[in-house]
Amino acid sequence: MTIHAISNVAIFNGRNLHPPGNLIFQASPGDILGVEAEARDLSGINAIVEGSGCTLLPGLIDSNIDTAAINRDLHIFASYGITTVLDMSSTETEIQAMRAEADAEPGLPSYLACGPLATAEIAHSNQFYPRRENKIVRSPAEAENFVTSGVNGPSKADYIRVLVDLPGIDSEILTAIVHAAHRHGKLAVAHAIQKIGYSRALEAGFDVITLIPIDGLIDADMANRLAARGTACIPTLCRARALAQLLLLEGVESASGIDLNFDYALANVKILYDAGVRICAGTEANQTSNAPVSIGESLHDELELLVRCGMSTIDALRAATVVPTLVFGLDDRGVLSSGRRADMLLIEGDPLQDITATRNIRKVWISGIEVEHWEGIGG
What is a GO molecular function of this protein (predicted)? Predict the structure, then answer.
């Protein structure tokens, strides 16, 4: 068994920052063997990385990507310290290709996905996702079939995703999809860029909502109700910003008379955060949609945007580490402690003092395997 150590390093374990110590892990591939607060003799260790002046973080999690199976996307995510990705938009064919790549090559990020997005016959999804794979759901019976085919079909859905904005699926059918997802032991994820979408997701009982409204402010009472029932939110601010810019350029706001503004997105995250809603960091990283978002680097943008919204730096880091593991049931990662996967990110500086320090990447490990060929994004 090959044993490695990172010495004299400040450790953000997914929940809190601890003073400099040592982390011992098994390599190629492996788990964390121990986190030690005090100095010790490391002479029996196979390889030691000096971590003075650095902070060790759990590998980052991007909770909303749209890779479209572009060649080497997983390698790019890894190079930016992202060790787990949750695909919310790709097609069944793309998902099969990405799963095969992730399984075949050690040291790549873990890949989870959902398959087609459930929509109504008349929906905004074609405007926002002209290249994506949607599936029309017209009745409660079709809701059951949609979930069953998603879980057992080619995409092997890890969760179920539904467009809840208007015009869209009837409320009765939304509730039927949620109940079907839960019967299959899957989370129900709502896609909503409208205020009304958040209200509809709450009433239907969705577990997670992706994106954040850009058409006005969320009601504080609704935010409190979301927090009370444990609903999580993936604001996906990078995507909301790109989408708001696109709609402005296309004149959608002036044509519709609706006030569409990215400032609403920023304010809405603060409303949800203040209410105690669990926030996960996600980007909808993609290079194929009408509003592209950079692969990998955008998660560091997202952390900075979360802090800009008013989240503390420690909660922004939690949003990309421990919180999504709790929301999506990924119990083997997101925290640096004995027995967890050695998914880790070593950066120069202290991200609790300056969130942009997450860009100063020195090393990345995925399940104990060091990511070797990566394009640096910091100093």
Answer: hydrolase activity, acting on carbon-nitrogen (but not peptide) bonds
DSSP string across 103-166: HHSTTSPEEEE--SEEE-SS-THHHH-TTS-EEE--SHHHHHHHHHHHHHSTT--SSEEEE-SS
The string of pLDDT tens digits covering residues 240-270 is: 999 888 877 766 554 444 677 899 999 999 9
Beta-strand pair 188-191/60-65? unpaired
Sheet holding 208-210, edge to edge: 134-136, 117-119, 160-163, 188-191, 208-210, 232-234, 278-279
Residue 283 pLDDT greater than 80, yes or no: yes
pLDDT at 360 over 60: yes
Q: What is the pTM of this model?
A: 0.95
Burial of 329 (0-12, 13-18, 19+ CB in 10 A): exposed
Q: For residue 43, count other CB atoms closer than 10 A to its CB.
A: 6
Q: Where are the domains of the chain?
A: 3-57+334-370, 60-328
Summary mean pLDDT of the chain: 91
Model pLDDT for residues 205-240, shown as the tens digit of each residue: 999 999 999 999 999 999 999 999 999 999 999 999
CATH class, range 3-57+334-370: mainly beta
Q: What is the rounded end-to-end Cα distance, in angstroms, of the chain?
A: 33
**How many residues in the chain?**
379
Does domain 60-328 fall under CATH 3.20.20.140? My reply is yes
